[in-house]
Amino acid sequence: MHVNDSLVIELKSYSEGQNHHLGRDSRTRPSMNGTNTAPKRRAGLSNKPEVHSLENNKPTNTLYKEKPFQDVTSKPLVSLSSIFVAILVLFLAFATATFLQHHNNRRGRAMETERNLIHDDLTSGTDNKMDPCPEQTLRDFWSDFATPGYHIICLKRSRKPEDAFIQASFYENGLKARENTVVLPLTLNWESLKQSFVENLGLQKNISDRQPWALYSTTGVRLVSEEEQEPVAGQYPNRLAEYGVFLLFEGGQFIWPGVRIGFRRAVDLYSVMPPESPDLSDRHREVVLETLSVTPLVLSVTGFLTTEECQHIQRLAEPSMEYSEVVLMDKDAGRPASDFRTSQTTFLRSTDDFMVDIDYRTSSLVRLPRSHQESVQVLRYGLGEKYDNHHDYFDPRAYQNDQRTLSRIKNGRKNRMVTVFWYLSDVVSGGETVFPRFNGGREKNMKDCETGLKVKPEVGKVIIFYSMKPDGKLDPSSLHGACPVQEGVKWAANKWVWNEPMRF
Predict the structure, then answer these.
(1) Rounded distance between C-alpha atoms, residue 368 and residue 253, angstroms
(2) What is the pLDDT along the chain (504 residues), one digit of tens a residue?
(3) Are residues 148 and 207 in the same domain?
(4) Is residue 259 part of a domain?
(5) Pairing of strands 245-249, 387-390
(6) Are 148 and 264 in contact (CB under 8 A)?
(7) What is the dihedral of CA 424, 294, 472, 359, to 10 degrees?
(8) Residues 6+ apart with CB under 8 A from 77
(9) In CA terms, which of 60, 110, 196, 399 is 20 to 30 Å from 378?
């Protein structure tokens, strides 16, 4: 249909008193082939323009009807029919101009509100599917504080084939207040989508001491990383649009968002990395994460270990317990380990089904592959024994004279990322795990056990704390220590999980 035909139809509708407003069913929108799609007319109405004839409007009177001085050459100066024709022409010209102005204004408003119209199509389509980015889901990931390197992205694909658009909403650093929404073409490829991420989130490229950024589902499924190549054009954007909400971590590895202190999240274990053994794959369990601290990020875990499992680990470890060693920084070279740590320890390899199950359970909990884990370290603290405040990561600046450690951590690119710490026994008094830099605090000294967050040992209790931030940088606030046991014996164990496979 040509524009003129559409114009005539709209004039007809206008003359019949039809309402021309910017609505979902009546608006004229550009189609894929560049033509205009006009609203459908009701059945029985002709598409031919209505013609107004002047035949039935002959004048019944003229000016100067009586002409006392008439001669054969004289004619009336102005007739009523001429006046009527002039008025009608003026009216039609005015009506046409008014309609064109109305039509252009309407098209202008439609262009100005294009994003809103697309949003309407995406969120309230005719197929009544659920919103791919429901606010309830977003509330579980919006943070109350800025978290550098952690970003939330929501893609909404139009459900109408003729609307070739994707609406992308970006929440920089996990903040709802930092929302930025743009419209992207549906046909974009992975390189174009990555560029959109860079532009809207300020991502940095080619950082030598950090891993490429990566995208994850809200349940921790790794989707794609910055370095991956798209096998088929458009495959990755379409796949991401199916997820709706997903998370971008500049450090390349998944971290459970803390959101706020007291926030609780139910997590299914084995939902990402089921164990290889069929006998263990049915041991599904759900745990609850609760945020104890956001600086550093510390989460408690309920339901990870049973009392019987705690006792089993103690029995396996007891025959091989020895006093602990430490990897000394350059400034501490030559000092005995007992200056810092007086506990006993051993490492348990996964040689039976039970320990294999623990490995996979840990992988599911932190959403990192089993190959990233060290062996289980089991700890025993007797009366007065402790471990001074320390970091679990290896700061390359502190090991410049230790080439073995520098090689192991690839000069900072590879490191311990998260610690999963299990309490295997109750302790009558003392033995707490302390985080002196909790909420921006500062330790008095490296033996300080009074400042900050303190976690009391209780059999079966588990905590997670992160040594690296979402942007891949080391987190100095993760400094922690084991307070001296004042009464009883403290049994504990932990898994150190790296941001890359171990391979050593």
Answers:
(1) 8
(2) 443 443 333 333 333 433 333 233 333 333 334 344 444 433 333 333 333 333 343 343 333 333 333 333 344 445 667 777 777 778 777 776 666 565 455 444 433 333 333 333 333 333 335 688 999 999 999 999 999 999 999 998 877 766 678 899 999 999 999 999 999 987 889 999 999 999 999 998 767 778 999 999 999 999 999 999 988 888 888 889 888 999 999 999 999 999 999 999 999 987 444 445 555 544 678 999 999 999 999 999 999 999 999 999 999 999 999 986 655 565 556 565 555 567 899 999 998 888 988 999 999 999 999 999 999 999 999 999 999 999 999 999 999 999 999 999 998 899 999 999 999 999 999 999 999 999 999 998 888 899 999 999 999 999 999 999 999 999 999 999 999 999 999 999 999 999 999 875
(3) yes
(4) no
(5) unpaired
(6) no
(7) 20
(8) 63, 64
(9) 399
3-state secondary structure of 243: helix
pTM value is: 0.71
- Scored b (16 or more CB within 10 A) or e, 127-140 reads eeeeebbeeebbee
Smallest CA-to-CA distance from 151 within 130, 173, 169, 136 is with 173
Q: What is the CATH number of the domain that holds 463?
A: 2.60.120.620
Look up residue 478 and give its two tokens.
């993760």
Q: Alpha helix locations (H) across 41-188?
A: 80-112, 114-123, 135-139
Q: How many domains does the chain have?
A: 3
CA distance linking residue 266 with residue 218, whole number of Å: 12
Taking the CB of residue 307, how many other CB atoms lie within 10 A of it? Answer: 11
Structure tokens belonging to residue 457: 């040992």
DSSP assignment string, 316-355:
HHGGG-EE------GGGTT--GGGTB--EEEEE---SHHH
Q: Look up residue 265 and give its two tokens.
A: 């999240």
Whole domain around residue 151: which residue ranges? Answer: 135-249
Q: Are residues 87 and 229 in the same domain?
A: no
d(Cα 398, Cα 400) in Å, to the nearest integer? 6
- Asked whether residue 284 falls in the same domain as residue 235, the answer is no
Q: Are residues 218 and 360 in the same domain?
A: no
